[in-house]
């Protein structure tokens, strides 16, 4: 496997000199909570370090669209967290049960509403100022997390890179000529650059898992309805809101905060928290399916090599590895998904653009044209029939297995800038480059993206762990095993790319 210790930025990103004291801002949320409980640190110190890291590396990375930590409510939240930990730190101390993230910094994806802050999804003509938080944001606040900054997304969150006319190009901290992915690319880049240990994401076609992969972090697409969203977008059975972090444990910690039934989302489901199984997180004796190509995706050699090395690491921990492919084709998967988006996502985007007079980038108009054309060829009822076949095939593949591991993207890296033309000479939309969409079609299946190494162009590679319907424990079982094996690039010690070299 590629060396997992990445100590320099190969593309030479060279922002203002970074204060060495900021290095502690790369600690995991779990480590920070332990430090608070032991009286070693205070939330105010950690938030100051997060802001210093942002100041030192923006706008070169261009992951941040606004600062939240200086808002009066967040200043007060930090002061309250300091006061609690000053009074409660000591042997046996822990965060209060009702505030498990007390004092931990989090960055928030631009699309997730923060009360009193404008929201436009990188399309300024559509701006609105919400009176209430998105349910995910509200739950993070209630858990004691500190909202540090907002992170960039592409226009309408409808791209797998992060580039917009309003905010410009967001770059990958590992190698800035390449993309951090999208649409949660600002969150992925912010985590990789050490701005905070936690970040929010969302996923309708890989928007959490693709940035997690390219940024060497962890991202979780929970099954449909497990994490509440906002209507009407939450009616789309392809989508979910997500936890992102630099470690599997932190993702699980954050996920258990944001998940669960919510009155604002009638589609949300009342599942309890994901807990450690009785036998621990061991994979010994568990059958794990490995699919390098998910049928016929053309995958770069490095991505495949790192996937196989991860499978070897699981085998070394007692897992039973079986290499199999589903009976899927890229053409079928993309035809179904693009028709779905043409029936559900694109008409609303088109209406908003027309009613607001918004000017959008070519990738948006091309996405709308491509998906509406696909929908014209395939009625909605037919997409459901064909989705059923795709679901059935995944069920067959997973029958008797704990999980499937497979790449998230076919490419080891992609350019940072938006493509001028979104469809290639074969008529394929560029989303066909990614292997995430099948598990939005099969959106009751959890999918956890974890790192596997670094590719030849200095950009991390990753895989997604897919479990059976609503079997969340299974994907975390495999995720913890891979992280313990050291297959990632950002382990619990909180390594980040060196953006000062």
Give a description of the structure:
By secondary structure, this protein is of the alpha/beta class. It has one domain (21-272, 283-484): Amidase signature (AS) domain (Amidase signature (AS) enzymes, Alpha-Beta Complex), CATH 3.90.1300.10. The chain has 14 helices and 13 strands. The strands form two sheets. Strands 1-3-2-6-8-7-12-13-11-9-10 form an eleven-stranded mixed β-sheet, with helices on both faces. A two-stranded antiparallel ribbon has the order 4-5. Strand 12 and strand 13 (460-467) form a beta hairpin. The longest helix is centred in the last third of the chain and has 19 residues, at 380-398. The chain is globular. The protein starts with 28 loop residues before the first helix and ends in a 17-residue tail after the last helix. It comes from Corynebacterium provencense.
């Amino acid at each position: 496997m590629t060396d997992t210790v990445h100590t320099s930025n190969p593309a030479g990103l060279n922002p203002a000199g970074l204060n060495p004291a900021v290095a502690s801002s790369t600690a995991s949320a779990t480590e920070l909570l332990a430090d608070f409980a032991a009286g070693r640190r205070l939330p105010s110190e950690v938030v100051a370090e997060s802001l210093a890291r942002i100041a030192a590396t923006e706008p070169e990375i261009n992951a941040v669209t606004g600062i939240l930590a200086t808002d009066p409510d967040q200043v007060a939240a930090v002061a309250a967290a300091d006061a609690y930990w000053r009074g409660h730190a000591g042997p046996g101390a822990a965060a209060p049960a009702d505030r498990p993230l007390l004092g931990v910094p989090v960055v928030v994806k631009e699309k997730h509403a923060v009360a009193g802050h404008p929201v436009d999804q990188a399309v300024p003509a559509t701006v609105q100022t919400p009176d209430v938080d998105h349910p995910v944001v509200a739950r993070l606040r209630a858990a004691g997390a500190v909202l540090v900054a907002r992170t960039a997304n592409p226009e309408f969150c409808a791209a797998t890179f992060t580039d917009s006319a309003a905010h410009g190009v967001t770059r990958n901290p590992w190698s800035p000529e390449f993309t951090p992915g999208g649409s949660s690319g600002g969150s992925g880049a912010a985590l990789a650059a050490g701005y905070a240990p936690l970040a929010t994401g969302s996923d309708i076609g890989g928007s959490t898992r693709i940035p997690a992969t390219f940024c060497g972090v962890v991202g979780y697409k929970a099954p449909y309805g497990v994490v509440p969203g906002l209507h009407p977008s939450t009616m789309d059975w392809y989508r979910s809101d997500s936890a992102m972090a630099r470690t599997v444990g932190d993702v699980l910690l954050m996920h258990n905060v944001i998940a669960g039934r919510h009155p604002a989302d009638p589609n949300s489901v009342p599942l309890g928290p994901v807990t450690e199984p009785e036998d621990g997180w061991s994979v010994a004796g568990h059958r794990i399916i490995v699919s390098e190509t998910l049928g016929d995706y053309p995958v770069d050699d490095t991505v495949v090599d790192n996937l196989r090395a991860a499978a070897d690491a699981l085998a070394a921990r007692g897992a039973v590895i079986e290499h199999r492919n589903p009976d899927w084709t890229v053409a079928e998967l993309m035809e179904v998904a693009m028709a779905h988006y043409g029936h559900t996502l694109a008409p609303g985007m088109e209406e908003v653009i027309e009613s607001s007079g918004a000017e959008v980038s070519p990738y948006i108009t091309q996405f709308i044209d491509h998906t509406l054309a696909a929908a014209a060829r395939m009625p909605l009822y037919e997409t459901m029939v064909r989705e059923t076949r795709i679901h059935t095939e995944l069920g067959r593949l997973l029958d008797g297995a704990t999980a499937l591991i497979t790449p998230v993207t076919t490419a080891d890296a992609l350019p940072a800038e938006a493509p001028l033309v979104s469809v290639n000479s074969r008529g394929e939309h560029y989303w066909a480059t990614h292997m995430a969409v099948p598990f939005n079609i099969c959106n009751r299946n959890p999918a956890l993206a974890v790192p596997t190494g670094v590719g030849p162009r200095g950009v991390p590679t990753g895989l997604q762990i897919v479990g059976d319907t609503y079997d969340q424990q299974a994907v975390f079982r495999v995720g913890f095993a891979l992280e313990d094996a050291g297959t990632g690039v950002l382990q619990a010690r909180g390594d980040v790319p060196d953006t000062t070299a």
